[in-house]
Amino acid sequence: xxxxxxxxxxxxxxxxxxxxxxxxxxxxxxxxxxxxxxxxxxxxxxxxxxxxxxxxxxxxxxxxxxxxxxxxxxxxxxxxxxxxxxxxxxxxxxxxxxxxxxxxxxxxxxxxxxxxxxxxxxxxxxxxxxxxxxxxxxxxxxxxxxxxxxxxxxxxxxxxxxxxxxxxxxxxxxxxxxxxxxxxxxxxxxxxxxxxxxxxxxxxxxxxxxxxxxxxxxxxxxxxxxxxxxxxxxxxxxxxxxxxxxxxxxxxxxxxxxxxxxxxxxxxxxxxxxxxxxxxxxxxxxxxxxxxxxxxxxxxxxxxxxxxxxxxxxxxxxxxxxxxxxxxxxxxxxxxxxxxxxxxxxxxxxxxxxxxxxxxxxxxxxxxxxxxxxxxxxxxxxxxxxxxxxxxxxxxxxxxxxxxxxxxxxxxxxxxxxxxxxxxxxxxxxxxxxxxxxxxxxxxxxxxxxxxxxxxxxxxxxxxxxxxxxxxxxxxxxxxxxxxxxxxxxxxxxxxxxxxxxxxxxxxxxxxxxxxxxxxxxxxxxxxxxxxxxxxxxxxxxxx
Length: 544
Prior knowledge:
Elements: E1 2-4, E2 7-9, E3 17-18, E4 21-24, E5 27-30, E6 44-46, E7 51-54, E8 56-61, H1 63-69, E9 73-74, H2 81-94, E10 101-106, H3 119-126, E11 131-135, E12 140-143, H4 145-151, E13 160-164, E14 170-176, H5 177-186, H6 191-207, E15 210-215, H7 222-231, E16 238-244, H8 248-252, E17 260-261, E18 265-273, H9 296-308, E19 313-317, H10 320-332, H11 334-339, E20 345-348, H12 359-363, E21 366-369, H13 373-384, H14 395-401, E22 405-407, H15 418-427, H16 444-458, E23 476-479, E24 496-501, E25 504-508, E26 510-511, E27 529-530, E28 538-540
Parallel strand pairs: 1-6, 2-7, 8-15, 9-10, 10-11, 15-16, 16-18, 18-19, 19-20, 20-21, 21-22
Antiparallel strand pairs: 1-4, 2-3, 4-5, 6-28, 7-23, 11-12, 12-14, 13-14, 17-18, 23-24, 24-25, 26-27
Helix pairs in contact: 1-6, 2-3, 6-7, 9-10, 15-16
């Protein structure tokens, strides 16, 4: 196949722009010209001036959880407790008798008047239907009385918080380890539910240009979910899967030495947590506030044990104390993980003390961040971290220091929408307000490197993915226009019109050849055209 008459942004500095791209099988054969001779009677696709980029790689997503969330009550954007309860009431009326009512997305810091959720408020609209609603940051859980009864008073867990009223009774809100323990014990979805939801989630992700993810749902058994999807032929993403620190013994009991799997699915790294989050006010700060989930000493032990089997560690750290402890642990163990040529990372790195910011580059620890979090969290950060936000979501400062940034969504905390994340990195706003800390804006090229190129490097795939150069996998996304010629404010209007994985269209707003049935209809002459534009992209098969 030859993609021609467009703008190919290769993300390779040696040849950043090409007018065409030749694809042989699942790999890129080269630019049109000399390499065209390597293709026997190629299909020719007229891009019609559209832009081709390497496929988007979400470096931090809870994919089965996000997929399940598409079917649950969603509370994002509610402006008061009463508005949240109105949405829950609608879902409760439609809930199946005897089944859990699940939901997510509430954030009490966004509510006016300020009010914390309680079991009594939830009881008013859910009655006896057991209800479990995860907060937007996924570190707090809101339960009604029927749900709390399932635990029979067993709510406490080390590293967690049970919110209690003046009488010492649970209010219905659990945080951190308490929330996760309850969820895992009483509300855990079945593998069949996750497979069914993820099958549909794949189609949504592909339609948004996603060709690869670093999944964080290893604790939930996501590896088995993706194995089933691959076995049935539904896996249309490349997955770099995590393994939870709490189950490290089980991983080390296996005869594995580093990442294990195949081209589409690999088990590759260990995931740990240092602290909580901004929204739940459990981020571990230098002033002593917040919740410590894993100590520096415990993280050091995890890094060393994982490195013995050549597995890198990815550690969640939000607060400035948590980030310092994580960096201290990586520094104390660097001889071990460097000897194994591992690529460790801190997930989020949201609040940094000035003296800690340059340490990521100095140590060679990557920053796995989420550009969309900065404008989404701005009001909470200004409130809870007043006077400290010069060191918050400091993406440009980290980039300029030489740190490697990989961009993800943290879906379902934010939406799995890579292009929106790129725009958030460039604009530092998602509404009509001016940029929040505009000095931390990234260039479009930097945001795309963090979204397309650097996640592939973290997964050890830098010689086969992330760029559109000969010998690399033909994982790519087609945009309706070239974003590099637009004003920054125009970027959010750009649309994904095609996604290719290994030389095969997995999404295409077009008619014609070599695409899943859900994408298109074949025209009378066998050509392919993009349906949503005035200048359709066409695929022309060679005459025989």
